[in-house]
Amino acid sequence: MQVPSNWSELVARCGTPLVLCDVAFVRAQCRRLRAAFDFCDLFYSVKANYSPALVRVMVSEGLGVDAVSPNEVELALRCGAAPERIVYVENNMSDAEMAFAVERGVRLVVGSLSRLKKYAARCPGARVGVRINADVGGAHHARAFTAGPQSKFGIHFTQIPEALAIAAAAQVGIDLVQQHIGSGWLDEAIFAEAADIILRQAARFPDLETVDFGGGFGVAYKDGDHPLDIERMGASLRARVAAFQVELGREFKFALEPGRFLAAESTALLATVQDKKIGVDGRTFLGLDTGFNHLMRPALYNSPHEIRNLSRPDAQLAVYDICGNICESTDFFARAREIPVAEEGDVLAIMNYGAYGAAMGSAYNLRAPAAEVFVDGDIQVLTRRRASLEDLLATFIG
Ligand code: LLP
User: Which CATH number do you get for residue 284?
Assistant: First the structure.
């Protein structure tokens, strides 16, 4: 993304911490992925970033929405997605949530035999999707891996005969087979291998219409990470699905559910250095006016988000432990990180904030979510105001 050249005006107007989203970047990512995978329907995985302004950009780019809760479904509808362009990939949903999905007419993908049975009992003769766990996975961190027997996601491929029997007994057609191998992988070979495996499994479903390869497309977070060659991946998947269709003698639809790839690099979190502490063992702490309440990826996965010093981009480099203002020892964005010399009052930008940044935020320590500005060329719009204490306490009674 481009941090806008007038960032200091925005900071003067809105304060920090401040989220800045480069809309042109989002649109470019959508178009690049659509062009590379023009044989696939794209569903933006809204869990990555549910800012309504962003969801509307995704919908206006022709994407559907991948949702995992009724509120995500409702948000997608409000942002203009048609029900049939919403895929609800459930995980441990309740009966009331299933009823909601059915009433709203969204496409449901169930992730357990038990849920499939409950769906078949409620909707005999209807169509549904299933998520399959085929034991092959990839992710930026073991904590974002979703395959194998220890994973809570999906119906294990060895249980496909049971799934087919449950569906057949209620004349339910399993028309969509989905797989999501994990999040943030940068290994193209894993995706190709997983695609072959899920295609092989999908061939076992007589009512198959759509194969959904899930999301997980990673982005580079640190030097040395190789960004995915999306065009090469598209060509490789195109060849695989073509062979699959020839083998089965008919045409199918194909889908993807990217989240991070579309949103991550579009957005930065701006924060101000509030405290510079020279440690007794030689380290220097930079304490920011943000914390893991706004970005928990470093604390949760050790994720190495790039940090820039916007106030002094050309200063000589110095090494810092960069931390937040939350009362927890894990509240660090980086240890021993080299950035241009920073002083109290400088504004730093934490990059790749657009996916699983604000979306995983909390009000811990009663700190409010950051304000958010969308930058679209010359237009700069406040898309989220800073929450007040009243906002944070609104649901408490008494
Ligand atoms: N489809 C399904 C069924 C998913 O569970 C997910 C992500 C996606 C698609 C989108 O994955 P993406 O393309 O964004 O990688 N909090 C973690 C990531 C958790 C992802 C959860 N599921 C992180 O910050 O890395």
Answer: 2.40.37.10
Q: Is 144 in the pocket of ligand 1 (CB under 6 A)?
A: yes
> Would residue 30 count as lying in a domain?
no
Which structural domain, as residue segments, surrounds residue 296?
Answer: 7-18+266-392
What whole-number distance in Å separates Cα of residue 176 and Cα of residue 107?
A: 9
The tens digit of pLDDT for each residue in 8-64 reads: 999 999 999 999 999 999 999 999 999 999 999 999 999 999 999 999 999 999 999
Q: Dihedral of CA 152/108/144/227: which sign?
A: positive
Give the pairing of strands 173-178 and 210-212: parallel
* Backbone torsions φ then ψ of 225, nearest 5 degrees: -75, 130
Q: Judge whether 42 lies within some domain.
A: yes
Helix (H) / strand (E) containing 335:
strand 332-340
Helix (H) or strand (E) holding 138: none
Q: How confident is the model at residue 398 (pLDDT cuts 50, 70, 90)?
A: confident
Q: Does ligand 1 have an atom closer than 6 angstroms to the CB of 260?
A: yes
Mean pLDDT of the residues in the chain: 97
Per-residue confidence (pLDDT) for residue 392, from 0 to 100: 97
Q: How far is the CA of 184 from the centre of ligand 1 (A)?
A: 8
CA of 316 to the centre of ligand 1 (A): 37
Q: Is 259 in the pocket of ligand 1 (CB under 6 A)?
A: yes
327 is catalytic: yes
Q: Which of 21, 79, 323, 327 is the catalytic position?
A: 327
Ligand 1 within 6 A of CB of 145: no
With beta carbons less than 8 A apart as the criterion, state whether 54 and 77 touch: no
The tally of domains found in the chain comes to 2
